[in-house]
Amino acid sequence: MFSKSKIHEPGPKAATDPEKKSEATMPPSRPLGDFVPSSTPRAKPAASVLSADLTVTGNIKTTGDVQVEGVVEGDIRAHLLTVGESATIKGEIVADDVVVHGRVVGRVRGLKVRLTSTARVEGDIIHKTIAIESGAHFEGSVQRQDDPLQGANAPKLMAPDAPEFAPAPKAPTGA
Predict the structure, then answer these.
(1) Residue extents of the structural domains in the chain
(2) Basic and acidic residues: which segments have biased composition (predicted)?
(3) What is the pLDDT of residues 67-112, one digit of tens each?
């Protein structure tokens, strides 16, 4: 008679059934940690900036954009590289787009290379398209290639500090 079970109770049971049915037909909720790809494109991340008071010794590699205002002694590989007016890069540059306002000592490889009027480049430029503004200082050769980034992965034949020749390996002596 005083049962806690609601199975045999008459009353507003019919009113609660539609709520349970709607819960059953609803898709299960996802935990907050699940990744859901969105159809809207993401905002492009901001460029990494190496400030004027920064000196980097070593190579830099990224798939994003880099703006250099300081000094880099090493190679740089990026999507878009902007060399600021106060910047100096001593090494090879490989990027889809290269904009030089400052100083580069080394080879430049890029699909689109632009030297502004304040640019000072000492080295070869391998490009698909190039623009050199009046006033830019450039010492080196310019070579157009359909895919200038292709040769960037090729190993260098000789390090700059390596001697011109190495002693021949000694042949093993047999008895």
Answers:
(1) 48-149
(2) 1-23
(3) 999 999 999 999 999 999 999 999 999 999 999 999 999 999 999 9
